[in-house]
Specification:
The structure is a single chain. The protein is of the alpha+beta class. It folds into three domains: 114 residues, Helix Hairpins (Orthogonal Bundle); 48 residues, Roll (SH3 type barrels); 82 residues, 2-Layer Sandwich (Alpha-Beta Plaits). It contains eight helices and eight strands, in the order αααααββββαββαββα. The strands form two sheets. Strands 4-3-2-1-5 form a five-stranded antiparallel sheet. Strand 7 and strand 8 form a beta hairpin. The longest helix is centred in the N-terminal third of the chain and has 44 residues. The N and C termini lie far apart (108 Å).
Length: 285
């Protein structure tokens, strides 16, 4: 045991001799240098890719037929393209033959495509969204059951911000494959409010009160149609009336909430009753 220990110590001392350490350093140094150079290329390349993508995006916005949505998409494409070239350059620095790497990537393309069908479908859907332009950044949309303002679009995802300021990120494949409701594309929207009056109340008087109240709202438009009110149903305890008015898309929620309050106050002033459930207690003897 002592001989084995002594032999191990001797080999360790021999291995750690200055001459061996110098040889090891001379052998490893080039590889360390290549790895550090590759990391430096990746770091600088990522900065350049971000800068160039932003530069292209800013220049694209200035073009007459390009809006923010398309500009961001073009900027994303440029950024990813530059990063792909930077990655290949960095790999080449550590001794990997780039020609062989490209050939290997081409051979593995089918397998990668099958494994990343969802991701690739998002890219294809992103291109279709850019081509057909069902919405742009700043539009209020309803897609996949989510409603919000479009705040960002990339080649992979579409980002919405809901009215209660929640960030929603949806894959472009889901967006393109669903029904898209663009709530602001036309510039104006119709606001529908439902009211109920008592069966003993004057229906025509209620129509007049609702229409005059709606017309007095500063954000209600007279075109394409003046404020409208009709009976939509006869309920168990009320005559159901619907009011329809038009406003600018950005005023939709203000007009809806304001009219609920204003019509209720106008009903009170004009002796019109909004029925509500009443509980009756019977005393059986």
């Amino acid at each position: 045991m002592e001989n084995e220990a002594a032999e191990t110590v001797a080999k360790t001392v021999e291995f750690l001799s200055p001459e061996n350490l110098m040889n090891l350093a001379a052998t490893v140094a080039p590889y360390v240098f290549k790895v550090l150079l590759a990391l430096l290329i990746l770091w600088i390349g990522s900065k350049i890719a971000r800068w160039l993508g932003k530069k292209v995006q800013n220049n694209a916005v200035k073009a007459p037929n390009v809006d923010d949505t398309l500009a961001q998409f073009i900027g994303s494409l440029v950024r990813y393209a530059v990063m792909a070239m930077v990655f290949i350059a960095a790999i080449g620095q550590v001794g990997v033959q780039t020609a062989s790497l490209v050939a290997m990537l081409g051979a593995a393309g089918l397998a990668i495509g099958l494994a990343l069908q969802g991701t690739l479908s998002n890219v294809a859907a992103g291109a279709m969204l850019m081509l057909f332009r069902p919405f742009k950044i700043g539009d209020m949309v309803n897609v996949t059951g989510e409603e919000g303002v479009v705040t960002d679009m990339s080649i992979f995802t579409t980002e919405l911000t809901t009215v209660d300021h929640v960030q929603v990120i949806i894959g472009n494949g889901e967006v393109w494959g669903s029904t898209i409701q663009n709530l602001t594309a036309k510039g104006i929207r119709r606001v529908d409010n439902n009211f109920g009056i008592d069966y003993d109340d004057d229906i025509n008087k209620a129509f007049k009160v609702i229409k005059e109240t709606a017309a007095s709202h500063p954000k209600v438009l007279s075109e394409p149609e003046a404020p409208w009110a009709k009976v939509t149903g006869l309920g168990e305890s009320s005559v159901d009336i619907q009011s329809r008015v038009w406003c600018k898309s950005e005023d939709y929620w203000d007009v809806m909430f304001d009219l609920n309050k204003m019509v209720k106050e106008a009903f009170d002033k004009n002796g019109l009753t909004i029925p509500y459930p009443i509980s009756v207690e019977l005393d059986k003897k």
